[in-house]
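Moderator note: this is an archived Q&A kept for reference. The question asked for a predicted structure of one protein chain; the sequence and the answer are reproduced below.
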Amino acid sequence: MKSRGTKISTIRLPATTREHYLTGKAALNIPSPSGSGDWHFCETFVGQDPSIYPVAGVTTISTNDIFGDSGIYDSAPVFRARGYSSSSPVYAADHFRAVADKIVTLLKNGYPLTSVINLDDWFAGEEEFSRIRDYLAKAKPHLTPAQQNTLSTWAEAAGMRLEKFSANLPSPTRRNECR
């Protein structure tokens, strides 16, 4: 098994932008300084076809109308430290945004949350759960009443009451990408 610092040369990634970024399980497997996430980096990225990765607005729905660019960052330094040789940015959702994107995508596509999303797999502390609650509170007005009910039922079963929290995320920002 390769160690975290080992250089790996067989990483291929799809093109990304701040609007079309890695999300979902791919983003959850990018190591973060906070220790959150899944971190099966090699299994997720080494030797894989780049078309398998969820890219917001390309292979999965975009949540930019809900969350703006909150939680989107250039993860290229993490990849370069592991041998990825491109000088292009690799935009990805942080772990909180990736989970929020996954939850919204499942809800909007009519899938249940109960057996798919277990926050304890990715987050350990109350501060982390609070960040997820902020995202979900921000998403709630963008969901149908049935989707809101599914979200509330799941959140309560996960020990979160969304009604107690307000969305502390900044309003969506629109970037002028002219360069």
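Archived answer notes: DSSP finds seven helices and two strands in the chain.
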